[in-house]
Amino acid sequence: MIGIVDYQAGNLTSVARALDYLKIPWVISSDPEKLKSCEKIIFPGVGAACSAMESLIKFGLDDFLKEAFYKGVPIMGICLGTQIIMEESEEDGGTKTLGLISGRVLRFPYPLIEDGKHLKVPHMGWNSVSWLKEHPLLKEVEPDYEYYFVHSYYPQPENSDIVLGVTSHGITFPSGLAYKNLVAFQFHPEKSGRPGLKLIKNFYEWKV
Amino acid sequence: MLSKRIVVCLDVKEGKTTKGVKFKDNIEVGDPVEMAEKYYLDGADEIVFYDITASAEHRPIMIDVVRRTAERIFIPFSVGGGIRTVEDMREVLLAGAEKVSVNTAAVLNPRLIYEGAKAFGSQCIVLGMDVKKVERSAKIPSGYEVWIKGGRQPMGIDALWWAKEAENLGAGEIVLNSIDADGTKEGYELTITEMIATAVKIPVVASGGAGHPEHLYEVLTRAKADAALIASMVHYGIYTIKEIKDYLAQRGVKVRLKW
Question: Which residues form the active site (chain B) (predicted)?
Fold first, then answer.
C-alpha cells in the first residue's frame, strides 16, 4: 500500500489515478496514524511553500515525514513535495521547511536568458532530464524521455552527490534527487505519460 | 530547453466531440474520452476540452467526461466552457482536469481570474480569448477585438490590453483563438499571436486555423507562441501528431519526440 500525503496542496487525485492505472493500491490521508501503516509514501503537492508548511504542521505531518524518513520508509517527493523536503525555501519571503535534505529552494533568476531569448517563469511544459547516475527508479527509463514541469522554484541541495538528474531552463537546475530511501522529482511523473508512469512503477517495486 | 507543445482540442457537445468552421455548423466526430486517449497515446502534449453547450443542465455530462478521461490519460488536460464561478472550477479540477479555462465569464467578471488563481494557483487558470480583426482605433489600438459567448458578441475591448490585464490578475496561460481563422485550415493569425506572446510573460497557446504542419512552424517560430492548438488536422486523420512533430523537428523546432 502506498500512502499519499494529503496536506491540502493541490490536486492529489491525479497521483491516485496513475496508481489505479498501474494497479497499485493506495490510500490518501492527512492522518499520520493511517499513513504509518503504509510501506511507501508519496509526497506530492502544488502551491506555495508557506501555506503548505502550515498545513503539514497542523496535521502533524511534518513529524510523521521526518520519522518515516529516518526509519527508512521509501518516500517519493513530487514538485512542491520535493521543495518541502529541503531546509528552507525562498518562496513567501523565506519559509523554513522540513530539512530532510540540506539545501535551499531557489527562484529562477531574472532575467532568464537562453540563446539570446528571454525565458518564461513558471517553467511550464515538457523538458528533458539528464540523469547523472544509476538508480533503481531509472530501470528501463530511456535517457531522452521528457517530463512535465510546472514551477517557479527549484531545489538546490548542498551535497551535489544527491543530484540524480538535471534540467536546463536558462540555468541548469536539479530536477531529480536521490538520497538513501528518498527520491524526489521537480516534474510531475503522474502527468508525464508512459515515462512518468514507469518511474512510479519502479518506485513501487523499489527495494531499499 | 522546453519543448514547444502540441495541444489537441476537442469541442464537446452533450458528451460528443464536434468540429465547426468559424464557430458554426458543428458536426459530430467521435467520443471525447476515446479520442483523448488515442491522442495521448499518439503523442499529444496536452488535451483541451471545450464544452460548447455549457450550461447548468449539461455540466454533469461534462464532469463525467472529465472523470473518465482522467482515468485514462496521464498528460495535462484542461477544460473550458461555461465556467462561471470558483465552485465551477473546483468541480472540474476535482474531476481530474489540471487546468480550467475561462473566457466569457472572465470578460464579464475579471475578478474570477484573480479568485481562481488565489484558490488553485495561477498554473491552473487559463484565459481563453476569442479575437477578431477590426480597424485600428483609439479604443482597439491592437486592431483585434475581444468577443464573448462563443464568438457571438463583440465587447469593444482591445485584445492586447485584455491579455496583459489577465496576466496581472493571475492567469497562468493564454489560449488565443482567432475567430477569423478558426476551422479554415489556412494558418494561424500570426500578427496578434506575436503581439501577445511578446507582451506577456505567461505562455501563449495559438489557436484557430491550423491546416498544415507549416502553419505550426510559423506560429511557434515567427509568432513566438509557446504551444500550438490543433483540431481538424488530426480529427479527420489528415495528419498524425507524429507526422506534425517530425516535420517541426526537421525544421529545428524542439518538440517531444518520445512518449
Answer: 11, 130
